[in-house]
């Protein structure tokens, strides 16, 4: 094995120098303010989880997990997401708390990549709304995502919203073989619209039915697009899904958030995980989604508390990249003093700190040799305003 | 988001380029091959069409598109299958038609420890796994036909269009792994945020492809 060079980090892990750490904190504070204003409460979960519990329940595929073995031989994973741990928490630590629960988190998550140079440790800030199946709940998390992105001064952005149950229902109404339905959904899942359209063409449907299935892969729009599907509905399941999505859209209109949203039924997310609404948010210059989320009604029951749930995770790294936001921050003042005046200088520093300044104390007995200090302003003891203390 | 966004398109150098430019021209975009050939530049802006092109190695096109330095790209299905990049595959352009095939010398017999040489290790690996056959994949970057002749591998997986190269080297085609044509691909964010321009280009190309039927 090649000898490690001293600067090396495990592949895909990063250092955050002060400039990046500041931006990360800024984004987290802004979105946290939104989350708290909407009544969400912060939770923390462990960095390590058992593979058999949280790992197996996660939307993230097993090959993307970092695994370790504990002393008893049990397989551990570095948490690949927060949704499964929070579902565990809701079903155990919080099992006496009445539903619905509104929870949020800031956390790092770990995902191994094939492409070895890519980042494997990400930061996420997200919310989970557990115990509410209504269109209002779906709209709430989408509207909250809109508010969080806006709070980071990201503009323009777009949230694309699909509905896994509606897509599945429309496909099953027209395609008898469930395996073919799975193949069609898998094509959409990997964004292979060509493969989807080829498979639809091979189904020998009537021209109208074929056109409808083709439209699902490329049509994007608002409430009208979903309502236009109504005459084609053949099952109560699809009817219910359409009603849910249309109502959700109307709630989004009431929130004033619908102008950021486009409905796209080809969007499926992680196929066996989401159960209804699924959404992704985009803004330039990021080429990858800044946020993704949706309804995962089957997850909480895996931990023993069957209840519907929805939520999203902001990809903090990409939000940082897309957000022009910058805080003035506090002024950094360096107070350079001769050792003889140390006690008074420390007192003065405390006063300045109480005023909200960042104060760096620097002892220098030779005033002619200016120290190299990273500060906005240097105050030399005995000069200007500080004479009164001297 | 208003449908007037400029699009950057990654084009593969070589064979596919000429046919793709013909399609774009038929679709009403003022691209001429000259723009690409009279200059050695790697980027070709076409402001009047709202397009800007750059030339890349075919195998790199999906990477450029996934990372969003190109909104769109034109690339063979073989490269898409091998690279498995996270991009939208929007349209089968029907050009540069060929196939990925398994080939060997005519007297080839199954061996105990089969070796397969290929430029497409992922495609080949998956193909043989699906067939229930465990093989050793040897990755080569060119002249794959040579491998059976000099005893490096007993079979190869490679692109075949006319079959001439195989014949000239005395190889026979055993099985087709996949048919291949060139595809229009899009970056995930561009597909959303520049949907007006992307949809227009895609539907114009789609009608050219349909109108002309299958081209060879």
Structure description:
The complex is a heterodimer of chains A (390) and B (216). Chain A has 390 residues and is α/β, with parallel strands linked by helices. Chain A has helices at 18-37, 51-57, 83-91, 135-151, 164-174, 178-189, 193-201, 207-218, 223-227, 236-255, 299-302, 316-322, 342-354, and strands spanning 41-42, 48-50, 67-69, 75-78, 101-110, 121-130, 158-163, 261-263, 277-282, 291-295, 309-315, 332-337, 358-363, 377-380. Chain A folds into two domains: 18-322, Bira Bifunctional Protein, Domain 2 (BirA Bifunctional Protein, domain 2, 2-Layer Sandwich); 332-388, Rossmann fold, CATH 3.40.50. Residues 386-390 of chain A have low confidence and may be disordered. By secondary structure, chain B is an alpha/beta fold. Chain B folds into two domains: 7-96 and 181-212, D-Maltodextrin-Binding Protein, domain 2 (3-Layer(aba) Sandwich), CATH 3.40.190.10; 98-179, 3-Layer(aba) Sandwich (D-Maltodextrin-Binding Protein, domain 2). Chain B has helices spanning 15-26, 33-37, 61-66, 77-83, 121-130, 146-149, 164-168, 188-193, 195-212; strands at residues 7-12, 43-46, 51-56, 72-76, 88-92, 98-104, 115-118, 136-139, 155-160, 172-180, 182-186. The two termini of chain B are 36 Å apart. The relative contact order of chain B is 0.22.
């Amino acid at each position: 094995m090649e000898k490690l060079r001293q600067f090396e980090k495990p592949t895909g892990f990063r250092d955050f120098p002060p400039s990046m750490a500041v931006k990360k904190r800024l984004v987290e504070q802004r979105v946290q303010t939104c989350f708290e204003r909407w009544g969400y409460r912060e939770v923390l979960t462990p960095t390590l989880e058992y593979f058999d519990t949280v790992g197996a329940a996660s939307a993230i595929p097993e090959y993307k997990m970092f695994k370790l073995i504990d002393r008893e031989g049990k397989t551990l994973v570095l948490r690949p997401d927060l949704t499964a741990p929070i579902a565990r928490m809701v079903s155990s630590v919080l099992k006496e708390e009445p539903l619905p629960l509104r929870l949020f988190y800031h956390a790092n998550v770990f995902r191994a990549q094939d492409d070895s140079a890519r980042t494997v440790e990400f930061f996420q800030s997200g919310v989970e709304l557990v115990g509410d199946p209504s269109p209002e709940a779906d709209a709430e998390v989408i509207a909250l995502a809109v508010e969080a992105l806006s709070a980071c001064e990201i503009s323009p952005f777009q949230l694309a919203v699909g509905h896994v149950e509606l897509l599945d229902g429309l496909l099953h109404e027209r395609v008898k073989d469930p395996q073919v339905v799975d193949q069609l959904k898998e094509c959409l899942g990997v964004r292979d619209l060509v493969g989807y359209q080829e498979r639809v063409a091979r189904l020998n449907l009537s021209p109208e039915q074929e056109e409808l299935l083709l439209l699902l892969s490329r049509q994007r729009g608002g409430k009208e697009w979903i309502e236009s599907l109504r005459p084609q509905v053949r099952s109560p399941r699809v009817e219910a899904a359409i009603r849910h999505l249309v109502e959700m859209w109307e709630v989004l209109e009431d929130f004033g958030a619908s102008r950021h949203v486009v409905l796209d039924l080809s969007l499926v997310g992680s196929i066996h995980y989401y159960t209804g609404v699924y959404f992704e948010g985009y803004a330039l210059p990021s080429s990858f989604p800044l946020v993704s989320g949706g309804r995962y009604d089957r997850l909480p029951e895996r931990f023993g508390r069957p209840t519907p749930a929805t939520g999203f995770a902001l990809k903090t790294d990409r939000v940082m990249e897309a957000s022009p936001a910058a805080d003035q921050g506090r002024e950094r003042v360096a107070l350079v003093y001769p050792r003889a005046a140390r006690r008074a200088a420390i007192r003065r520093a405390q006063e300045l700190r109480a005023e909200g300044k960042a104060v760096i104390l620097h002892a220098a007995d030779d005033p002619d040799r200016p120290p190299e200090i990273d500060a906005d302003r240097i105050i030399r003891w005995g000069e200007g305003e500080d004479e009164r203390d001297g | 988001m208003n449908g007037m966004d400029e699009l950057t398109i990654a084009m593969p150098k070589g064979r596919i380029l000429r046919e793709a430019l013909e399609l774009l021209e038929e679709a009403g975009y003022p691209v001429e091959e000259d723009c690409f050939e009279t200059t050695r530049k790697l980027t070709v802006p076409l402001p009047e069409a709202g397009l800007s092109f750059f030339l890349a190695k075919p195998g790199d096109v999906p990477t450029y598109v996934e990372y969003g330095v190109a909104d769109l790209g034109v690339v063979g299905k073989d490269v898409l299958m091998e690279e498995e990049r996270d991009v939208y595959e929007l349209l089968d352009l029907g050009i540069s038609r060929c196939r990925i095939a398994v080939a060997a010398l005519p007297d080839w017999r199954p061996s105990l420890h089969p070796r397969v040489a290929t430029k497409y290790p992922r495609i080949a690996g998956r193909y043989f796994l699906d067939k229930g056959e465990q093989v050793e994949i040897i990755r080569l970057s060119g002249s794959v036909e040579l491998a059976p002749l000099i005893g490096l591998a007993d079979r190869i997986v490679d692109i075949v269009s006319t079959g001439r190269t195989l014949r000239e080297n005395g190889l026979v085609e055993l099985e087709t792994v996949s048919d291949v044509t060139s595809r229009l691909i899009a970056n995930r964010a561009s597909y959303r945020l520049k949907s007006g321009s992307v949809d227009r280009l895609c539907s114009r190309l789609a009608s050219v492809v349909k109108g002309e039927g299958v081209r060879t």
